[in-house]
Amino acid sequence: MKKFFTFSGTISGKTFLLRTLFIIVMCIPLIIVSIAKWTTYFMSLSEFDISDPSVENQLEIQKFGDELALKIAENPEFYLNDFMNSFSAVWILVFIVCIVPIIWFGLANYYKRISALFYEQRNNIFFAVVAFDVISDILILKYDTGSFILGTISTLIFVYLIVSNSKIDTHEG
User: Residue by residue, what is the 3-state secondary structure of the chain?
Assistant: First the structure.
């Protein structure tokens, strides 16, 4: 297990692709925690009993959902700020515990594949790829510019890492 998270060794393009797909599986706990947080937040806004299966209660829940959707559409910033302020230290810790292994595994995955292709310059190229990804994410999310171009470049880098042949016959990592 330790070899999957260390920044040493090399991997083939096929292994790189499979490990990248495994990152999606690693995101399942994060998705579950996110849904749980949203659910607890919206339940805190309501005044009904979720365990009551009566028709009247179901209609009340439906009415609450419809009214809340209209309120969120009218003033999304209020609800976003309220949602962000509802995070406790436990929720923050749970999110960190869920996301750190995903990021670490992904970075180790990229490092090992870049090591297989560019062994002498692996550190420089790895940091360049990571810096490009971070900068492109900031540009896309904060300034909403260049999403098609930057996304295409990221995709081309990813495809290149998958299909390129390395000079290493036996990969260890």
Answer: CHHHHCCCCCCCHHHHHHHHHHHHHHCHHHHHHHHHHHHHHHHHCCCCCCCCCCHHHHHHHHHHHHHHHHHHHHCHHHHHHHHHHCCCHHHHHHHHHHHHHHHHHHHHHHHHHHHHHCCCCHHHHHHHHHHHHHHHHHHHHHHCCCHHHHHHHHHHHHHHHHHCCCCCCCCCC
